[in-house]
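We now fix the convention by which a protein and its fold are recorded. The integers have meaning only within a learned vocabulary of local backbone shapes. A complete example follows; check for yourself that the lines match position by position.
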Amino acid sequence: MNSKNTLGLSLSTAALALALGSALSLSVIPAAQAADDMEKCFGVAMKGKNDCAAGAGTSCAGTSKMDHQADAWKLVPKGTCEKTASTTSPTGFGQMAAFKAKS
């Protein structure tokens, strides 16, 4: 390989790395903004579909044992939690904190 080809290959590699780095950093920005527009809502996740917090003996995301588990939360758009149906909640809607499920 001559020096001209080596230089071309180095520039191409650098351009590809720069483009990939830019694309990856741009993809992080909307996720961070999206997180600001979300809130934890307890009692609305379906079995195995919670985002985290599912009570004693569970590890986290995807570990809820039942639909609308009172101590498992799901991220929902801000302002919608207490309008989202929950069959276990005393109010019939999601809660901003874990609660004792109605009997």
